[in-house]
Structure formats: C-alpha cells, structure tokens
Amino acid sequence: MKTLIKIAWRNIWRNKLRSSVVILSIILGIWAGLFIMAMTLGLNEQRINGAIDTYLSHIQIHHPGYLDDPNIKSTLSEVDKLEQVAGSIPEIKAYEKRILATGMANSAGGAYGVQIIGINPVNERNLTSIHQQLTEGSYFQKYKKNPVIIGKKLADKLHLKVRSKLVASIQNINNDIITSSFRVEGIFQTNNSVFDESSIFVREGDLRKITGLMAGYHEVAIRCKSIDQTDAVLARLQSEITRDKVEGWKDIAPELGYAQEMMSSMIYLFMGIVLLALAFSIINTMLMAVLERKKELGMLMAIGMNKWRIFSMITLETLFIAMIATPIGMLLSWGVIAYFQRHGIDLSMVAEGLSSLGVGSKIYTFLPTKEYWIITLMTLVVAFLSSLFPARRALKLRPTEAIST
Amino acid sequence: MAVITTKEITKIYRQGDIEVHALNGVSIQFEKGEFTAIVGPSGSGKTTLLNAIGGLDTPTSGSVVIDGQDITRLNSNELIDFRLNNIGFVFQAYNLIPVLTAEENVSFIMLLQGVPASKRKQRACRLLEEVGLSEQLSRRPAQLSGGQQQRVAVARALASKPKFVLADEPTANLDSKSTGNLLDIMAKLSQEEGMTFIFSTHDQRVIDRAKRIITLEDGKIISDVTV
Q1: Binning pLDDT at 50, 70 and 90, where does residue A326 land?
Q2: Which of B77, B98, B112 sits opposite A307 (nearest CB)?
Q3: Domain holding B144: CATH number?
Q4: Pairing between strand B35-39 and B61-66?
Q5: Contacts of A305 in chain B (CB under 8 A)
C-alpha cells in the first residue's frame, strides 16, 4: 500500500498544470459554496434575531383564542402561575406582560391600521431592543400623558414627527370605538419595515384607561438566555400552563421557521450543485489522466498488477487531489467568512428590499463549525465517487491493446 | 521437459466483415534455458504468438500449457496472478513506471508478489548491478538513456523469478552499442541461470545471437531452426 500511495502521489504531479487547475477549481468551488451558505445562514439568522429582538421574543403566551380573534376581553387565565413558573426556570432571562389592542392610527396625513402594544417601558427594555433603535426622540421619558413610540415607516406615511399628535381609534372593552390622542415621543427604525409601519408602543396604564381593561393581560413574552434553550423552556411551560396557549417563535411567526428550514435545505441543494460541477471536473481530469496513461496501465496489468490495485491507485490519486484542495478551500472560506462575520457585507444598495424581509443593510456571514466538517466529508465522498468512472475505465483496458497504443 | 507447449493455437480477429487469421494452428515447444528468436515479416503473427504464450491474449482455439497448466482456461484475475509469478516481460518501449526510480521499478514487481522489503531491495540492487546499472539505482526513467531503461526493464522482468521472459522487439529503439550490451546481459543470464528468453524481433543482431530461430509467415511456422 505504501508504494501504491507513493505512485499515486507522484502521479498527481506528473502534469502539474492540470492537477493545479483541478485543485484550484475545488478550492474555489468550496469557497463559493461555503460563502453563499454563510451569507444565507447569516441573513436568516439576522432575520430571526431581528424579529426576536424587536418584538417577538422566544416564547409568547396568549389566551387560546386570542391570535385567531384578537378580542380585548380574551385575557390570559394563568398569569400568576406563569410568573411563578417563569421565576423558577433559570434559562429564562426576562419576561414581560403586555396588553394589546388593534386600531387605526390617524393624523392629518392619513390613517393606517396598527397594533397598539401596551408595555411597561422599564421591563420591556430587558426584553426587546426598541429603545436602542430610536432614530429620533426618547423612550417614554418626556411626556406624562399618552406618549407613543412609532416606527419610522408609519411616521413617514402619516407625516408624523417627534411631538406630533397621533389620534388612535381603538375598540374598548364595551366594543365601542373610541378615539384618543397620543404625542409622538420617539421614532424607531428596525430592520423590519413591515413591523415599523404596523406597530406602535404605548404605556400599559394609558392603554388600560383608554380601553377600560383594568385587569388582565393579552400576552406574556419570554426571552431565554439563548435561542437554543427555547424548545426546552417551551416544553416545561407547556407542561405547567394548560389553560393558556404557550408557543415558541417558530409557531408564532411560522414564516421565520419555514424560512430557516427551507434555507437549511437550500444551502445543501446549492452545495450539492457546486459539488456536482466539481465532480464533473474531477471525472474529466482523471479520465484524461487514465487515457493518457493507457500504455502504462496496460503494462502494469501485463506484469501482474491486479485490478484492485489499479482501481486503488486511480482512486487514491483522486482522493489526494481532494485532500490537498479541501483543507485549503476550508481555510480560505473560514478566513473570508470570519472577516465578513466581523465587518459585514454592505448591501446598502438593496437596503429597502432587505428591510422588507426584516434584515438590515449589512449581512454578517455565519457558518456553524459542523457545516465545515459536513462539507469536507461531502467533498471527499464526491471525489471518491468521481474516481469510480475513470477507475472503471482503467480496469476495462486490455493489456495487449493498451501496450500497443 | 518443455516449459511451454502450444497446441494448435489459432487467433482470429475481425476487422469489419473480414476475418484475419493471425495464428493458424501453431504448435510449438520451448525448453528451459532456450534463447529463441521468433522472426517474420510484419503481420506474420509474432506478437500475437508472444501475447498468447504470455497470457496477455486468449487464443481463439488451441491450448497454451505452461509447466503443466493450460493458461487458456484461466480467467482474467487468475491470468494476472499467473503472469506475475511465472512470466517476465520486456517491451519495445521499455514501459517503466515513470514516477519510480530504477530500483523502485525493479522492486515493484516483487512488492506485488508480497516479497518483504529488505529482500526486495537486496534483489533489485543485485539485478541492477548485473545489468550494469549499480550507479543509477535512484534515477527515474526520464534520467536514463533508452539502453539503460531497457536494462532496467530486463532487471524488472527477472525480479519476479519467472519461468521465462518474453521480449517483444526489445532492441527496436536501441542503438547498436546498447543492443549489444543488452544482448550480452540476456545471453549471460540465459547461460548462467538457465533462464528461457523468447524474443519477437526483426533485428538481425538479435537473430545472430539466438540459439533457435522460429520463422512465422501468415500465422504459421514455416521454419524452426536450432543453431
């Protein structure tokens, strides 16, 4: 085997240019594939984190029928128990009770349907990052009466500025539509333009007075210490809270969960296509190498080198090429991905489109370590499979014909 | 006792609709230690006969018995093993492994036979010394002249301790001096070690040194002369 390895290794370098070209193509293929994977995963990660940070949190609890029919009277049944259980789960970083209402935001510039979120500003800071995403004004510090924080897109649509008056039409507990005026204290801009134009934040107490809902909550949002803990915390809460509906972020915003699953599949499909292209490049190169060495292979068979050894030699040559290219491709990919993970890829040119997807104008690449191992393994498997055809071609050579060519 | 016996071997090729009878019932025997040249014009069947004796090609009919074993009945894997352990080959174009040194080329065949590394090295060095290449052990084929490469090929053919050596036009690419040297070496090995050499050749210098000359024409033996 040692001599076979030696021959296979030296054979690679018989045609340095050809071997270098195929090695380079594998390196570039791996790099391109991994970089696109990292960009896709980074974009999706940012989209999910953005949604979780902005409003969603990891887990939300509602009255069982609230999300299908957001009736103001559909408040949570087990808030006290929930607080007790949440306090005993160490993986929970923070939770916040909210009241919600749907209504119309009106100004001299127009009217727009919104969700009005009544929050405790102090607690909400621990849960979401709206307070950090203000572009103008302040976060519930300035006005004593009915301050409101609105998104930039809504502000633009309704021609509102800080200190402008916003009139909201809201359904109260008696199902009457009442209007109430708010003063714009702050304008936020998240990466999600849809959220920015459809959600406004007011103080819980102000909303209670307007709606007449003096007790109860519509929503409890829970933030875990890490997104990976969501499923475990969710399972624990679901076992304890039975009268209210406990859902994870994937259930509340299924489009994010689907996107994550779809992108996970897509990246492998994409990598599969890249590897398929590489496979053809390897097959072509190795086939050329075999046909060029017909005479030599025929001689080896004539003097007594059996088929298994011929097969192993061709396979080893292919694997050596892949074994040279793969670590270099991985290292190059790791370097580039690490750079853009830190500095981001500036896509300001398409910022508006990205914003409607809930993503910022800078994409930070992200690729888990396990993906590097999976792709390394996939590349080596593809290289091995690619060697089968040229190796089979070599085995089909007849010594007499090969020698006489 | 004959080392090789062929009985009525025929080889028919098809070239489109035409049947070409490369060998037409060739029956012949080779004894141990013979130094034989198979001669004849191009297309007379020299190489076909050599291929049939060497188990590189299967005759259409007839048998090739080597040391009591009919090799026409062996399958391709068995034939590879048979060739490895019984037959040495010397080709017209040397056909050495270009990425291995002279010593490694000679050792390689012993490696295929499973000979231990120390014995391989020892025998390869001795054989290369016998063919006058003790100074070129670590040179690759591209660093050797044609004559030197063919001498390495002879050393390789002998390395597996074969029952006989088949050499197809071994001197076709060599100059007079190299041809002389090569023939001296092979004749010496034939005499001293009783090795059977069978050449197919056009080369008068080879024919002049042969002890037996078999002439083929149209796939038939037309003369078999012992000198």
Answers
A1: very high
A2: B77
A3: 3.40.50.300
A4: unpaired
A5: 80, 84, 112
